[in-house]
Structures are given as C-alpha cells and as structure tokens.
Amino acid sequence: MSWKNHIADIAVGDKVCYSRTFLQSTGQLTGDVPFARGIVTAIESLGETKLAAIDWDNPDMPQRVNVANLSKVTQKGISELS
Question: What global pTM score does this model have?
Fold first, then answer.
C-alpha cells in the first residue's frame, strides 16, 4: 500500500491514533500521545495537506491533525504502512 492510499483511507468516523513513524520522528515514545485514540469528525483540505478534526479520548490533544501523521485503529490493531 502506498502512503498516498494510506492517507486517502482515513475518513470521517474512523478511529485513529498517531502513527508510529510520526511518534518516532518526534521522539514521543512515552507519555499520553502514543496512547491517545480519537474519532475523525471531519476532513479539511488545506492545499495539498488534509487535516482531520478529531474527537480525542484525551482533551489535551490537538483538535486538528495532518492525516499523514495518523493511523487507523481497527479491531485487529493499528493499520500501519509497513
């Protein structure tokens, strides 16, 4: 699966978390951020960038996040690009 398809797969109503790649690149391997989960409530385009409005389970998380920094959470686990 390409990264472009990964981003396109995230839609309103999906349960999401921050992607492993994003967490590693920002050094956030512990704390609240790696364990935050939320539901996408809207997708907004900002030029070529897509921002997801997210209703997080932790109120301290930002309300809008670049979809490139997210992964889907499913019953089988987290959908990461390998």
Answer: 0.81
* DSSP letters spanning 15-72: EEEE-HHHHHHHT--SSSGGG--EEEEEEEEETTEEEEEEEESSTTS-SEEEGGGEEE
Which domain CATH number covers 28?
2.30.30.750
φ/ψ of 27, rounded to 5, equals 70, 25
Say if 80 falls within a structural domain: no
**Is residue 78 very low, low, confident or very high in pLDDT (cuts 50, 70, 90)?**
low
Q: Based on the structure, what is the number of domains in the chain? A: 1
